[in-house]
Amino acid sequence: MSLPMQDPCIDAIDLKTLQDNASATKAERVGLSPSQCSRRRTALEKAGIIEGYKASLSFPALGFDVTAFVQIRFHSHAIENNDRLLRVLEAEPNVLEIYSTTGSWNIIAKVVVARLTDFDDLINRAFIGKNYIEQIQTMIVLKRLKLSNHLPIKAQPTGKD
Asked: Above 80 in pLDDT, residue 106?
């Protein structure tokens, strides 16, 4: 991985630290002043490497007890089908992620809702009766076994001692 900075070792450490705690100060960990860290972080943001900052919220603690995945297969691979479904799914606040995929399914969507009845309502509203959808398959998550947004970033020595 090539980072757009003078010292990729420090940038990798910076990115790893940000993945652990985006609100933490990195100056002590990498031996730089807060203003140097801020300049580096700003450069990573401008380069599109850092896409944003967020709090990680607990779905169940907020009443979203059902997580599900919905796989969708279109009648044909026409781009209009993708566009139509994307507009429908983007309007659904309970649809958190949408992926275009290879294989026998065209789209996979991650959904969170409070109750199974809410999931049923969403399925009926977003998918049932759409003439461009050939088939849907749903999967209810029983238990989350792993959650990570951390990329495997490794610091490379710069040769400086």
From this structure: yes
